[in-house]
Design brief:
alpha/beta, TIM Barrel, eight-stranded parallel β-sheet, two-stranded antiparallel ribbon, 9 helices, about 35% helix, about 15% strand, globular
Length: about 290
């Protein structure tokens, strides 16, 4: 199985590690640590040294309750980092849902659009024209696209989480969105699907997506799993002295690595992580026993 991206054809027969580069002051896990161009690029280089196969750069926090970021501010954060990161000669993914940002980073040479809205979001119509994520990726015929499932939107997704069988709902949604893109000419080998762990789902529902992840493979697309430092992990490992809210990002590292390994064992082709070195080491152990 291969993933076509702007500059690279990625072989997914071995799992790929996507390292997270948040150029934000307010991300739930590492906000403010890499919010300058120099700091972000240093982090990119560190993640590559630790074994990352892909870098995922994002300028807007989408944690539960996060307020939307203006287009101008997101462009100001992301463009300088992407412009330099392209020179690292590795696949560069950009975590954005705004078509204008997609257009800008793809024009710079970015390889992948990683969209929590699965290309459904667009600015309110202005006059007779409206830029959409679908139109942007269609005009860049080789870029990779990650389509994620999200219930509601970041500001409200945990206020009224999903009901019922989330696995079936997630599968049907992602399968339909991907098929609609295929019908519009976006080739199947450009698409990857992400069940959206934590995006409008309760902890038990997230773990059902992990335990039954193999069912998502029936959609016919590679799966990207994003469990890194999520609150569902903290909820499980918390105790009377430390609740999910008080468990820091470092304490979530081991549970995150375990979740990444279990995801790969259940068929995930890409894992999106903060802790690259530890995840790479763990996946080497998994590979050794296969």
């Amino acid at each position: 199985m291969e993933w076509q991206t702007s500059r690279f054809l990625l072989d997914l027969t071995t799992p790929k590690v996507m390292g997270i580069v948040n150029v934000t002051p307010d991300s739930f896990s590492d906000g403010g640590q890499h919010d300058s161009v120099i700091a972000a690029l240093q982090h990119c280089e560190l993640l590559l040294q630790e074994g990352a196969d892909i870098l995922d750069i994002g300028g807007e926090s989408t944690r539960p309750g996060a307020l939307p970021l203006s287009l101008e501010e997101e462009l100001a954060r992301v463009i300088p980092v992407v412009r330099e990161a392209i020179k690292l000669d590795v696949p560069i993914s950009v975590d954005t849902y705004k078509p204008q940002v997609m257009q800008a980073v793809l024009d710079l040479g970015a390889d992948i659009i990683n969209d929590i809205w699965a290309l459904r979001w667009s600015e309110p119509e202005i006059g007779t024209s409206r830029l959409t994520g679908v139109s942007v990726v269609s005009r860049h015929p080789n870029c990779g696209v990650c389509l994620m499932h999200m219930h509601r939107e970041p500001l409200t997704m945990q206020v009224a989480p999903m009901d019922g069988d989330v696995v079936l709902q997630v599968l049907l949604f992602l399968k339909q969105v991907a098929q609609d893109l295929n019908a519009l000419g976006v080739q199947k080998n450009r698409l990857v699907i992400d069940p959206g762990i934590g995006f409008g789902k309760m902890a038990a529902q997230n773990f059902s997506l992990l335990s039954r992840q193999i069912e998502l493979l029936s959609a016919g697309y590679p799966v990207l799993a994003g469990w890194s430092r999520k609150s569902s992990l903290a909820a499980v490992v918390g105790n009377a002295l430390s609740t999910a809210a008080t468990i820091g990002s470092h304490e979530r590292m081991v549970p995150s690595v375990v979740a990444a390994v279990l995801s790969v064992e259940r068929g995930a082709s890409i894992v999106r992580v903060h802790d690259v070195r530890e995840t790479v080491q763990a996946l080497k152990i998994l590979n050794a026993i296969k």
